[in-house]
Amino acid sequence: MLLVLVSTVIGLAAQGYINSTYRTWSRVPASGATGADVARRMLDANGCQVVDIKRVNGHLTDHYDPRDNSLHLSSENLTGGSVASVAVACHEAGHAAQKAHGYAMMKVRTALVPVVNFTQNTWMLVLMLGLFMNIAGLTTLAIVFFAFSVVFQLVTLPVEIDASRRAVAYIEQSGMGEVDVRGAKKVLTAAALTYVAAALTSILQLLYLLARTNDDR
Ligand SMILES: [Zn+2]
């Protein structure tokens, strides 16, 4: 119970912080450019001329998809000319740059995706079977499956932080204003905290699972 509460509070706090930081900086105009403009320039500067920029529906649904090698930006970040739009668009361009430059942690993360998709969908079922049928081997397998999600989130952290680092470095060197740089740092730090919160929550869940299954034996 306490764990659910702690996880929820961590998650909500991180979510609230990114939302309010994003809102603040989405009211500050960037130095005469939209998210798409700056992301395009950053992509070209990183040798990513072939990377396309597409529109995606929703709020903060922005992502880079390695499968079609395209940035998918939400309308507000694509055509919005705020400091927050530029920060988010450049962060996604940072992921494209990671792929172009063969950034190792991104390769590890991409390789883990199919494994984690499988383990995330099955760990709970395996755990239930293990507990109901009282088969310790199945319970252990479920925990191993869950541990993959934890590893995945830990690998995601450096990938996200590196994409933000590339974004801020580009905004800085591209000669945009001091406000653009300061805002990008704030928005992207807040975004990184949501990944830290997610990783922390799953570590807590793993510890809980380990403690509970040890009690049962
Ligand atoms: Zn990212």
Automatic annotation (TrEMBL):
The keyword Kinase does not apply. Keywords: Membrane, Transmembrane, Transmembrane helix. The chain crosses the membrane at residues 123-156, 192-211. The keyword Cell cycle does not apply. InterPro entries: Zn_peptidase_2 (IPR007395). It comes from the Bacteria. PANTHER family: MEMBRANE PROTEASE YUGP-RELATED (PTHR36434:SF1). This is Putative neutral zinc metallopeptidase. It comes from Collinsella stercoris DSM 13279.
